[in-house]
Amino acid sequence: MKIRLLPGLFALTLTVASFASPLLAEEKDSLKKPDLKIDAAPLNGGVVTSYADVVEPAQKSVVSVYSKRIVRERVGFDPFTGRVVGGEHEEDGLGSGVIVSSDGYILTNNHVVEGADELKVSLSDDRELVAKVIGTDPKTDIAVIKIDTKNLPAITLADSDKTRVGDIVFALGNPLGVGQTVTMGIVSAKGRTQLGLLDQVGGYESFIQTDASINMGNSGGALIDAKGRLVGINSAILSPSKGNIGIGFAVPVNLAASIMRSLIETGTVARGFLGVSTDTITSELAEQMGLPKETKGVLLSDISPDSPAAKAGLKRNDAILSIDGRAVTSREELRLIVAQNLPGSKVKLRLVRDGKERTVEVVLGKLVENPNELLAGVQAEPLTEESRRQLDIDKRVTGLLVTKVADDSPYHDRLAPNAVIVEIDREPAGDLRTAKAALQPGRHLLLIYFRGQLRYLTFLVK
Questions:
Q1: Is the overall model pTM greater than 0.85, yes or no?
Q2: What's the CATH number where 277 sits?
């Protein structure tokens, strides 16, 4: 291998040196000495040569999750004649999970188990057991499954709010089916809220970012700290090639654990509700409102009538700075913090009104999710005989009727109320659950019935 000098670099150095004149003694004395910050103390604990004692116990708590889904193919389906040609085949999926209780509860990702007809879990001792789904929450991409056995090695949960950028972390899981694997990195960032990974379901994002290698199959696996405690559930990567480039994301364990408790105890996810519309405070907005430029928080632009916020006396132009001591720096952060509290919870809001700080106590209500939301801002429902008559829709047309498209929906220029989604990727649209599962991010082919005509539409889900 030949080593080549960078062109011109050496010559430039010589040229500069030849024109530089030496400083006189009095000029040297007049120069101010640099004020350097020096910490000469050695690192705590000396040199770490192995993390094996930390990783080994955690490995026993991480499992592989195998899913099986029956896909029914319909080739050449004609919505008017009803002719069907095709069959069915099995699709296998692979993910990971984390044992969080000795009696068999396992945390994983919703997308690992979504649509599965059969689930099996492989333990570190090579046992393979059938698992059942306890509950799922697409809005956080968290799922809870359970295996019927006792005395399992449950992992210890950390307080993910105390995780700091720069902390050493390890990602554990079964990437690409090669077997349980451990990778090492650091926490690269916290509170990633605008990635768009869960936009399709109106989700709640507050990811931990890490450069520990995460690949396909790691989903649902553990992100642990240097003490072997669970800090997150590995969920996604950012990559143009579907391979690891050092940008991975995990759901913080505090959020995952709150969802898990609700799913186990109630079978659903109950989220708090405040009832406000907000804007993130920028330096420009702060100046306009007479606030210090460095103010971080959200400004209330509207209060819903009879909402918890209205009952607590919140007003338009109030600037919320924190909730129960947790700083609120964006509208997404406010939405997440409120949703993490149970309905009926009392929370203390620190806010600024008319230039004065005050604390207001609010009793949160219950957030009512829209069960008919197909995509962000798009509501749909199965086509009924009544709606068919009202809209004069051909009796041979079946599918999902679009009932509402919000003005701020990213799909408002592609779908319209009263359109019927007949097929998704040449499969019958079916019910809402089936359609939601089919409309994953990416390009899809939709067969739409609108104003008496059938037409195909190339549709991009963001």
A1: no
A2: 2.30.42.10
